[in-house]
Design brief:
Oligomer: single chain
Distance between the termini: 79 Å
Radius of gyration: 29 Å
Strand order of the largest sheet: 2-3-7-9-11-12-13-14-15-17-19-21-23-26-28-30
Bound molecules: 2-acetamido-2-deoxy-beta-D-glucopyranose
Number of strands: 32
Largest sheet: 16 strands, mixed
Length: 491
C-alpha cells in the first residue's frame, strides 16, 4: 500500500519536472535560498500527532517559493510577506519550534530585500528578538503573537524606517513565556520610527525602563499600547508580580505632540508623576487607559476638550484632587473608571450626566455629599448603566428619582467607619431597569418598601448590615436577597 502511494508520488514529481519551467514566473534564487535557511531554523512537527501536515512542508527546494505556505510575493516575484501560523496544545506540543541557536535564528531574513510583513502566531521561538532584523529595510509590519519572545527591544529596530505596525502579544503569560525583559524600556533609537501607526506590547511585566522624551518622533502613531493587565470593564487583573514593575518613570509631556493618537493604553505599569496636561490637546483620542500605575496629582481639566473620548480609565492610581467639572463636556464617554484613588469633594452634577456612559466607577475614593442631582432627559434607555459609588463618604437621603433611569447595576455599599445613606424610599421602583442593587453596610432604617414587588428585573439585592424592620417584600424573598445583619426584620 505504502509503496503504491510512493510510486504515485514519484510519477507526480516526474510529471512536475517535465512541465517546462518559466524562470520569470519563479521566485528569485536569493529569496528561495534565504527562506530555505530560515526553514532550517525550525523544527516542524506535532510529537503527539505526526500525521498533521506542517506549513513548512511545502517549502521544497526547486519549487516556486511564491507558492509556499505563508509566503506572498509581489508582481516581480519577490517575497514581500511571511505569515507563519502554527498552534499550541497542552501539554507542550508546539507544531513549530525554534531549532537554530538564538544567536543564529532568523539571520537569513535581511537577505529578503523586499520583505514587508512578518507575522508569527503560536510558534515557540523562545528567543530574544534578532537584532539583525533591524536590517530588513522595507519591513512595514512585525507582529508576533504567543511566540515566547524575551529580552529587550533591539535598538537596531530604530533603522526600520518603513515600520508602521509593531506588535508583541504574549497572549497568555506563563504558557507563552513571560514576555520581554530587561531595563531598557522603549529604546530612544525607536523614536526615529516616524511612520509607526501601531505599537502594541501586551503582557511584558518584566520589561522595566521608561518612555523616552523623544517619543514625539512617532509622528504617525494612532494606537500606542503597552499594558500588563486590566480591561475596559473595570476588572482588576494585573500581571505585575512583586519583582516585576512593568514600565517605569514619568509620562513624558511630549506624548501631547502625537496628534493622531486614538488609543493610549499604558495600564498596569509603574508610571509615577502626574498625568501630562498636554494629553488634553489630542482631540483624536478615544481611549486613555492609565489604570494601575502610581500616578499622582489631578485629572487634567483639559480632558474636557476630548470630544471623542469614549474610555477613560484611571483606576487604582494615587490621584488626589477634585474631579474637574469640565469632564462633563466629554459627551462621548462610555466608560469612566476613576475607582480606587484619593479623589475627593462632591461628585459634579455635569460629569454625572454623561449621556452615553455604561460603566461609571467612582468607588473607593473620598467623595462626600449627596449623590448629584441629574438631568437625565434624552438618556438612551437601551444603554444598561453599571454604577459603583461604594466606599466613599457620600451621605444624605436616597432620592431614586434623581438617578438615571437606565441604571441596571447600582452599588452603594460603605465601609466600616465611613458615612452612610439614610432612608430607602418607595420611589426605588422608578428604576425599572435595575437588576443588581447593593446597599449593604449603610445606616438604612424603617420598613422595606413594598414597591420592590413592582421590580420584575431585579435579580441580586444586598441590603445586609443595615437596620431595617418589619416584613420582607415577597420579591426580595423570591430572589433570595442578602438581608443578614438586620435583626429587626421579620423573615
Ligand atoms: C518574569 O516574571 C515572572 C513572574 O512575573 C517570573 O516568574 C519570571 O521568572 C520572570 N522572568 C524573567 C526572565 O525575569
Ligand atoms: C471624532 O469622531 C468623529 C466621528 O467618528 C469623526 O468624524 C471626527 O473626525 C473625530 N474627531 C477627531 C478630532 O478625531
Ligand atoms: C464596587 O466597589 C467596591 C469598592 O471599591 C469593590 O470592592 C467592588 O468589588 C466593586 N464591585 C463591582 C461589581 O464593581
Ligand atoms: C453583601 O454585602 C456584604 C458587605 O458589603 C458582603 O460581605 C456580602 O458578601 C454580600 N452578600 C452577597 C450575597 O454578596
Amino acid at each position: 500500500m505504502a509503496s503504491t502511494l510512493n510510486c504515485i508520488g514519484l510519477f507526480l514529481l516526474l510529471g512536475l519536472a517535465l512541465v517546462p519551467k518559466s524562470q520569470a514566473q519563479q521566485c528569485t534564487a536569493v529569496d528561495e535560498d534565504a527562506l530555505l535557511v530560515f526553514k532550517g531554523d525550525f523544527y516542524c512537527n506535532d510529537i503527539n500527532n505526526p500525521s498533521i501536515p506542517c506549513p513548512l512542508d511545502s517549502w521544497v527546494p526547486g519549487t516556486d517559493c511564491c507558492q509556499w505556505s505563508g509566503i506572498q510575493c509581489d508582481a516581480s516575484h519577490r517575497v514581500i510577506s511571511i505569515l507563519l501560523s502554527a498552534y499550541f496544545r497542552q501539554p507542550m506540543t508546539f507544531q513549530i519550534t525554534r531549532a537554530a541557536e538564538p544567536a543564529a535564528f532568523g539571520r537569513s531574513l535581511p537577505r529578503l530585500t523586499q520583505l514587508q510583513d512578518l507575522d508569527f502566531r503560536f510558534i515557540s521561538l523562545n528567543t530574544y528578538l534578532p537584532p539583525a532584523w533591524g536590517s530588513i529595510t522595507k519591513l512595514r509590519t512585525l507582529n508576533l503573537y504567543a511566540s515566547s519572545i524575551y529580552g529587550e527591544i533591539p535598538r537596531e529596530y530604530g533603522k526600520l524606517s518603513e515600520l508602521t505596525s509593531f506588535t508583541i502579544d504574549t497572549l497568555a503569560p506563563g504558557l507563552f513565556g513571560f514576555g520581554l525583559s530587561g531595563q531598557a524600556g522603549i529604546p530612544r533609537e525607536l523614536c526615529k520610527l516616524s511612520k509607526l501607526k501601531t505599537f502594541v506590547m501586551r503582557y511584558h511585566p518584566n520589561l522595566s525602563g521608561g518612555i523616552p522624551n523623544c517619543i514625539d518622533g512617532w509622528r504617525s502613531i494612532e494606537d500606542f499600547q503597552f499594558f500588563n493587565g486590566g480591561d475596559e470593564n473595570g476588572r482588576d487583573f494585573s500581571l505585575k508580580q512583586p519583582a516585576a514593575t512593568g514600565l517605569t518613570g514619568v509620562l513624558p509631556a511630549s506624548l501631547g505632540n502625537l496628534k493622531n493618537l486614538r488609543v493610549l493604553n499604558l495600564a498596569a505599569n509603574s508610571f509615577g508623576g502626574v498625568i501630562p496636561t498636554s494629553l488634553g490637546s489630542l482631540t483624536s483620542l478615544q481611549t486613555i487607559d492609565l489604570a494601575m500605575n502610581r500616578l499622582t496629582g489631578k485629572i487634567p481639566v483639559e480632558f474636557g476638550n476630548l470630544k471623542n473620548l469614549t474610555i477613560l480609565r484611571l483606576y487604582k492610581n494615587r490621584l488626589y484632587a477634585e474631579i474637574p467639572t469640565s469632564l462633563g463636556n466629554s459627551k462621548a464617554l462610555e466608560v469612566l473608571d476613576l475607582g480606587s484613588n484619593g479623589l475627593y469633594g462632591p461628585i459634579p452634577d455635569r460629569m454625572y450626566n454623561l449621556p452615553k456612559v455604561r460603566l461609571l466607577r467612582l468607588d473607593d475614593n473620598r467623595f462626600w455629599g449627596p449623590l448629584p442631582r441629574g438631568d437625565y432627559l434624552g438618556r438612551d434607555l437601551s444603554i444598561q448603566l453599571v454604577m459603583n459609588v461604594s466606599w466613599n463618604f457620600l451621605d444624605g437621603p436616597l432620592n431614586f428619582r434623581q438617578l438615571p433611569k437606565n441604571i441596571a447595576e447600582l452599588r452603594m455599599s460603605t465601609q466600616n467607619g465611613r458615612m452612610a445613606f439614610t432612608g430607602l424610599s418607595p420611589t426605588i421602583s422608578v428604576l425599572q431597569s435595575l437588576r443588581v442593587l447593593d446597599l449593604s453596610q449603610n445606616q438604612l432604617t424603617g420598613k422595606l418598601p413594598s414597591t420592590f414587588n413592582d421590580m420584575p428585573n431585579l435579580q441580586e439585592v444586598n441590603l445586609s448590615i443595615n437596620d431595617f424592620e418589619g416584613q420582607v417584600p415577597n420579591r426580595l424573598k423570591v430572589i433570595n436577597a442578602d438581608l443578614s445583619g438586620n435583626p429587626r426584620l421579620v423573615m
